[in-house]
């Protein structure tokens, strides 16, 4: 049972936005999609790495309709999966249909990325069309591990950064988001590139380092959490209130048996699930490194401005109220039918909760 301390209340006017979330498909989708609002959010930027991936406008619209049927009170911003089938004409069609971005996955580095890219040059006509119609390119900023080049999960992100610089120079007006940064090198790179390049930061990467996932499958994700100094760089840029850095949870649900077991041939699934606790979790983390005053812009303002989704000042304004609590334990798992997911920090205590939404 929790005890509320009513004197410590934080009001967040506007709509809270998660600019990177995985909602999966089928029965798992039915379980996790309502957790967007459970966690305090009403706008979700939805990743396209399904089976098969979302590569066309029609697929994206059909997926959006499925999500809206599950929870119509969330605004879903849809994306396409960068693949050889994607053409400039499809980009123009997607823009007219309200699709917001295109997600690039390097081949084989994360969940359902077997159809990912190996070289960007072949996609320059697509990027040119995206720049022309003002769609966003979302980059999973890692390269595949390769012993010949001394590349592994710990340096895959810094090794990717030359691709980011090259794309920005070639397409200076193309809005690019480096997703889920985990290193000081990535933070410094994005800070150097100006207003058309932004970066999402996850809640869990503000909390954990390599020691927390080495031997602990529930904290294992891609990109992996790095060194304490890298985590400090993420915290510093949030505390600074830099407008190019905002929340993208990369909340990635997996069935528990895929996280808790592995074999000599098959590793555990990569992904940390934060959706149902997201806003209180972010509030607690920001409070821990003296950045509570940056909470509203981190979870809403900066991302909405970059994506050109500002709240209409003439329209109704939604306010979320957070309050401090004592003894509020995170659920060990969330269950719907025969589906279940285990959240980040399962069984631990949260010091904030959503008091109400008005």
TrEMBL record:
<dbReference type="GO" id="GO:0006207">
    <property type="term" value="P:'de novo' pyrimidine nucleobase biosynthetic process"/>
</dbReference>
<keyword id="KW-0862">Zinc</keyword>
<dbReference type="GO" id="GO:0044205">
    <property type="term" value="P:'de novo' UMP biosynthetic process"/>
</dbReference>
<dbReference type="InterPro" id="IPR032466">
    <property type="entry name" value="Metal_Hydrolase"/>
</dbReference>
<keyword id="KW-0665">Pyrimidine biosynthesis</keyword>
<dbReference type="InterPro" id="IPR002195">
    <property type="entry name" value="Dihydroorotase_CS"/>
</dbReference>
<dbReference type="GO" id="GO:0046872">
    <property type="term" value="F:metal ion binding"/>
</dbReference>
<keyword id="KW-0378">Hydrolase</keyword>
<keyword id="KW-0479">Metal-binding</keyword>
<dbReference type="GO" id="GO:0004151">
    <property type="term" value="F:dihydroorotase activity"/>
</dbReference>
<protein>
    <submittedName>
        <fullName>Uncharacterized protein</fullName>
    </submittedName>
</protein>
<dbReference type="InterPro" id="IPR004721">
    <property type="entry name" value="DHOdimr"/>
</dbReference>
<dbReference type="GO" id="GO:0005737">
    <property type="term" value="C:cytoplasm"/>
</dbReference>
